[in-house]
Sequence to fold (560 residues):
Amino acid sequence: MNQDATRYFYQPVLIFLGAVSLVLTAYVTWLTLNDLSLMKPQAQKFVGLDNYWRLLTDARGLGALWRTALFTIAVTTIEILLGLAIVLYLDREFKGRRLVRALLLVPIIMTPVVVGLTWRFMFDPSTGMVNYVLSLLGQDRPMDWLGNPAIALFAVMIADIWQWTPFVALLTLAALEALPTDPLDAARVDGAKEWQVTFYVLLPMLKRALLIVALIRAIDSVKAFDLFYIMTRGGPALSTETLNLYGYIAAFTNFDVSYAMTIALVLTVVTNIALLAVYGVMFPARNEARA
Amino acid sequence: MKRALFWIGLLALLVLVLFPIYWVVATSLKTVKDAFAQPPVFLFEPTFANYAKVLQNSVFLRGFFNSLLVSITASVIAVAVGALAAYGLVQQNAGKRRAHEKFILGLRIAPALIFVVPTYYLAVRVGMLNSHALLIAVYAFVNIPFAISMMITFFEDIPHELRDAARVDGAKEFRIFWSVILPLARGGLVATLILCVLFTWNEFFIALVLSGRDTQTLPVTITSFLTFQGIEWGPLTAAATLIMLPMVVLGLLVQGNVVRGMTLGSVKG
Fold:
């Protein structure tokens, strides 16, 4: 009987969260089926699936979707590979290990807007350090990193990779330390070489942790906004406009509310499907292993 | 030899990670002449002129005050509610709990855009766009799921026997929570609170949309200094340093919990 009292600790909160999400989802879905734009004089009117059809044939929207996918896949892959490399490199006893960990934490807790500013500063075509270092290496023509449509997206990727690779490394390192060492020792006793131990014993054991980090990074990169807003605002020539940014512009520059919500909803649904698919492929039929 | 190579590699890694930050901080301490010298100068006489300029800027000070007020208030609310809910959830049987926890984690997948836009129009209609209460409410709301997930991990570590013993003594559930469990989870409460403050302070997207002229938080304030015609990098880097420094200190205080916290879900747009 008393056991039930603990229900009242969480039920109101969860019911509230659930109700808000439900109402929001319903309202947003309703908006996407209407045409509500604050720039048009006529009142809201029901248009069915027109907004979805519009997105499907909107070159700008499709371009943004493509860039979002490219950005997400590229940064997630690179961050996982680099992070893993760092972990394997740091996985030994050395003086100052704790200090190195603390230092790796700094980019993660830095304000993302400040990260954007930092890299905008680094990439400055005339006074930036990136071009200076390249000039030392013999690259004489200064690159306009954020002003050249061909490379601006990669410049933003570099900033994202700089900020989040340490996160991948630290999380993987924590997972590594929680692993039992017996299988590694057993493999060594059996005469396996060190690289074989790493590839055939250690990496399979880390697979689950790596997948979780990859999922987290993928979700966050799909929604990436701060770096793009600060470094390029989608420019030059829309070359760095992601779906999230396009949705923001639709809502707050064009005041095209219904269309913005369509973009946001499609983004959410596509992300969910993609993540479920990835999850299903990586963990076939193993139901609900514990995190 | 191998040892030396290891240290060289480690040094290269740390330079890659830390140099951009160092360069921003160094620039904030330079005169205009030093800041744009080519080739760049590494040894220079530090000046605090840029900081003096930023600290005399009323817009920046206002932003600092707003950030402080909004992030602390919203975090306290989120942690209070989150701790209660987490305590309740930890007492449930495994199946029920998992379903609830999954729901809580699922809340983080939707982009902020999807709830920020309806909130924006609602706020415009009731005329709340320029009020701290709106920002505090929204941030508390987005922090609650995180606070629940985080507090669950701390409450789980507290042995069940304590609660059972207290119940045998006839204590009411809320009293057990308040006087037995909560004091034991004090460290977790502080860590969760600090992380909530950190996320809220750093958050940009929600603040960009939902803050008005008088409620701008720092990340929004600093972008208003950013114009496409020529940027004053000196004061800007000083402002950037002042924004990130408190968070770096807080983050290092709860070092072990940051990565765990971020896996449980942050407020990031």
